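Re-run with default settings, no changes from the original entry. Doing this only to confirm the output is reproducible before filing.
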Amino acid sequence: MGTAEKTWVGLVGLTLFGALLAETGHAGWPLALAVMATILVKAGLVIDRYMEMPTAPASFRWALYAFAGLLSLMVLLTHGFGEALKRLTTIY
């Protein structure tokens, strides 16, 4: 099994792990942190293995890493400040 296949199996495993987390019915900071970590790991695998960013210019690579970090940060912000964000983004 090559690197691409191993990465794919890892991504599928992380996806199944995320589905398992969703089925627990628990909510809270531990779940939000686990989702954030899963997003970061999956994004890192895709960026490094499938998009071949280690050979790309550093600015492209870091822009994608920053985007993945922003997405994972939004998970935490949504969990911690969901109601406030809802009020800020609701059109009346």
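The chain is about 80% helix and 0% strand. The CA atoms of residues 16 and 53 lie 26 Å apart.
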